[in-house]
Amino acid sequence: MINSPTSVAVLISGNGSNLQAILDYFNDKPDVAKIIAVISNVDGAYGLTRAQQAKVPGIVIDHKAFSTRQDYDQALLETLTELQVDLVVLAGFMRILSEDFVKTWEGKMLNIHPSLLPKYKGLHTHQKALDAGDKEHGASVHFVTPELDGGPVIIQSKVPVFEDDTTTELAERVQQQERNIYPLVVDWFCSKRLVMVNNKAVLDGNELPESGYAAD
Ligand code: GRF
């Protein structure tokens, strides 16, 4: 039996460089995953232009049109259900999702976070790494669970921090790595090699350590 590609929705709020990396990667692997929609909470986000260029439907669900988080998440849920999405990929989606929404998608929703989790959850991670005088920094891809940036890590990529780094330079170094690791993780999931079991990431039947696959 030939398996059909996994249907993926990518959620964004801005530039969409991770989205671009994922679109490019699966251009060459259409049998593994199909990016069926790009959903943005921000009208005019550049990621929507990237979607259009890739001929992927772009959908705006503007958070400003909803009075509560529950209402917003309900609209998002309805859209994802209608589209028959198998995997939700958060790629710079700058909204906190409600617990109910996250539970509905548990084990089927990924996020990329610009730090070596569990360090520096939340915002301003590059500044935090500089302020702390860290010698290394990086990015983590993880399953999304109700704890903010707290789900099981699948892979991390480390970069050096140089003494005279600005946040912009450090962010760019981290983001280059993000574009390498995120498509790979989406591939693992869509190829059915990666699952979440009992709040752990499991790759090829092996439970991954706390810092994920690429830990050294
Ligand atoms: C990335 O740094 C990601 O780690 C964070 O938001 C940023 C999104 O960048 N969650 P882009 O929109 O993919 O270019």
Order of helices and strands: EHEHEHEHEHEEHEEE
CATH topology: Rossmann fold
CATH superfamily membership, which one?
A: Formyl transferase, N-terminal domain
| Main sheet specs | 7 strands, mixed
What's the CATH architecture name?
3-Layer(aba) Sandwich
Assess the beta-strand content as a share of residues.
15-25%
Structural class: alpha/beta
Radius of gyration: 17 Å
Tally of distinct domains? 1
In total, how many beta strands? 10
Strand order of the largest sheet: 3-2-1-4-5-6-7
- Name the ligand types: 5-O-phosphono-beta-D-ribofuranosylamine
- What's the number of helices? 6
In the CATH scheme, the class would be: Alpha Beta
Characteristic terms for this protein:
216 residues; alpha/beta; Rossmann fold; 7-stranded mixed beta sheet; 3-stranded antiparallel beta sheet; 10 strands; globular; binds 5-O-phosphono-beta-D-ribofuranosylamine
Short description:
The chain has helices at residues 17-27, 46-53, 69-82, 99-104, 125-131, 167-190, and strands at residues 6-12, 33-40, 58-60, 87-90, 109-113, 136-143, 153-160, 194-197, 200-203, 206-207. The chain has 216 residues and is of the alpha/beta class. It has a single domain (6-214), classed as Rossmann fold (3-Layer(aba) Sandwich).
